[in-house]
């Protein structure tokens, strides 16, 4: 698996709690890593967008169906909640990430296609 970054050289600062925001991006990158197989790719991008900084974490992993993607930021939600599920986790990381982003007056969401990958978006005010 490869991890690439594309950070705008003129990226402006975000006024926020560095430890909490680090937790958000750690959660997003760990999820991307967990669901991307060997030979896959994860890309982290950050760029200025109007009065905000827009950060994306994209992967070429297993993806998430349209039927459940709106639930992934819910507390304790697991796409595969069966007792024989392949991927671990508590279902709380994305929920906590959402709370942290919202406290920073930002937005978080994900777009995905099964078998193609997922892109998580975080938009925070400059």
Characterization of the model:
The protein has one domain: 2-Layer Sandwich (Heat Shock Protein 90). Helices cover 22% and strands 31% of the residues. It has helices at 18-34, 93-103; strands spanning 2-7, 41-49, 52-59, 107-113, 117-125. The chain has a 5-stranded mixed beta sheet. Strand 1, helix 1 and strand 2 (41-49) form a beta-alpha-beta unit. Helix 1 (18-34) packs antiparallel against helix 2 (93-103). The chain starts with a strand and ends with a strand. The model is unreliable at 81-85 (pLDDT under 50).
Structural key phrases:
31% strand, 22% helix, alpha+beta, Heat Shock Protein 90, 5-stranded mixed beta sheet, 126 residues
Mean pLDDT: 90
- The rounded Rg comes to 14 Å
Order of strands across the main sheet = 1-2-3-5-4
How many β strands by DSSP? 5
Biggest sheet character: 5 strands, mixed
Secondary structure class reads: alpha+beta
| Count of distinct structural domains | 1
Q: Give the end-to-end Cα distance, rounded to a whole number of Å.
A: 32 Å
Note the run of SSEs as H and E: EHEEHEE
User: How many helical stretches?
Assistant: 2
> The CATH topology is what?
Heat Shock Protein 90
The global form is globular
Supply the CATH superfamily name: Histidine kinase-like ATPase, C-terminal domain
CATH class: Alpha Beta
Q: Please state the second-level CATH architecture.
A: 2-Layer Sandwich
């Amino acid at each position: 698996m490869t991890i690439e970054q594309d950070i705008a050289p003129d990226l402006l600062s975000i006024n926020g709690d560095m430890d909490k925001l680090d937790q958000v991006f750690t959660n997003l990158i760990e999820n991307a890593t967990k669901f991307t197989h060997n030979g896959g790719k994860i890309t982290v991008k950050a760029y200025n967008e109007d009065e905000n900084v827009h950060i994306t974490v994209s992967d070429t992993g297993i993806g998430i169906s349209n039927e459940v993607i709106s639930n992934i930021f819910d507390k304790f939600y697991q796409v595969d909640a069966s007792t024989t599920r392949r991927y671990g986790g508590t279902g709380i990381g994305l929920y906590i990430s959402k709370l942290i982003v919202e406290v920073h007056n930002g937005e978080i969401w994900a777009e995905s296609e099964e078998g193609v990958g997922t892109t998580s978006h975080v938009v925070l005010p400059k």
